[in-house]
């Protein structure tokens, strides 16, 4: 897998690279580095292709990011065969401790501009979908908020560690919707991290716990927002990446027009 990193020295969980990104192709079977890649080379290689870009969340060592991305890539290729020409991982310094929330949140905001510039370059050559998890939603939504043109085809926003009002009119990330064709909020009330840690830190409710607060506005105003309740198929914060029903929903949305609100059911 190709991984694009804004972490200092590619792997540092706590420090941003001074500028830009480092890009490497990693063999996820043995974690060996196959090659360094320039941005120009990457752009040439993805031209005309359909790409799924993965954005991890808070509190992940580099090895944990790679493990998660390996699982997601395997499931995407298994349940959505042929949909994507490549799955690319994005790595940012989201910390490596459960007690670094505010530092990680500041870095998620700080990386927004360079992530936007990257998305602009990638989307000029390829069709881009995004899957984000947890605080990765802030990285992606911050970048999309600053975009001046549509960049993303489908954005699958899982377990989002942002405020449950943030997509609504006049709220923090409402303008982010202008940069996506369709945005899918996947949430679960059984997410123990968002129910406890996020609520304690922010004194508010996470988008990834109950979904958007104002369901009327989603239904009538936010025309490109769709909501999937995953309470029957996702029982923990990190369980999205292993849920077959989640991937089946992603596959359905690739070719069909989904209902605005659905509840995924276990087999």
Question: Could you characterize what this model shows?
Answer:
The chain has 267 residues and is of the alpha/beta class. The protein has one domain (2-263): Rossmann fold (3-Layer(aba) Sandwich), CATH 3.40.50. It is 34% helix and 21% strand. The chain has 9 helices and 10 strands. The chain has helices at residues 39-46, 62-79, 101-110, 112-123, 136-145, 192-202, 207-210, 215-220, 244-255; strands at 2-5, 22-27, 32-36, 50-55, 86-91, 127-133, 152-158, 180-187, 225-229, 261-263. It has a 10-stranded mixed sheet, sandwiched between helices. Helix 5 links the parallel strand 6 and strand 7 (152-158). The chain is globular and about 50 Å long. The model has no long low-confidence stretch (mean pLDDT 96).
Q: Summary?
A:
A hairpin with a 4-residue loop joins strand 2 (22-27) and strand 3.
Shape: globular
Helix content: 25-40%
Strand tally is: 10
Question: What name is given to the CATH topology?
Answer: Rossmann fold
Q: Estimate nothing, just give the exact number of structural domains.
A: 1
